[in-house]
Design goal:
Keywords: Coiled coil, Membrane, Transmembrane, Transmembrane helix. The protein has 130 residues and is mainly α. It is 86% helix and 0% strand. The mean pLDDT is 83.
Length: 130
């Protein structure tokens, strides 16, 4: 019969191969785990770079949109000022009486300019220029 003493003696005699096998198994499992973690770390680095690039793009887009909004506001203000200036000029011109009647040479020059511009269809042109 095999007794407990025989099992212990057999285990002591075979301890180095068993220890080596356990150590090799531990090393293999550790290596596989390390490889998996390295791959995960690389994926996380790539994800981080993508997130940083997206954040930079969003920041640049926000800056461009803010700049465009500021330019639109300035353009709107400039347009309003120009409209007011033109309206004032039209109102002043309408309120004034002509100082002197238009001379024949000035009328002929104006009619020639209108002809060259192709503006000869209005009734006012026909009345002034014939």
């Amino acid at each position: 019969m095999i007794g407990l003493g025989n099992i212990i003696d057999t285990a002591r005699a075979n301890i180095w191969p068993i220890a080596f096998a356990v150590l090799a198994l531990f090393a293999a499992v550790s290596f596989v785990g390390w490889q998996r973690e390295s791959a995960n770390a690389e994926e996380l680095r790539i994800d981080l770079r993508l997130a940083e690039a997206e954040a930079d793009a969003a920041e640049r887009r926000t800056m461009v949109l803010e700049k465009a909004a500021a330019e639109r506001a300035m353009d709107t203000s400039d347009i309003r000022d120009l409209e007011e200036g033109l309206s004032d000029a039209i109102d002043k011109a309408a309120a004034r009486e002509p100082v002197a009647p238009v001379g024949a040479a000035t009328r002929a020059l104006g009619c020639e300019r209108l002809r060259r511009a192709g503006q000869t269809t209005s009734a006012r042109y026909r009345a002034q220029c014939g």
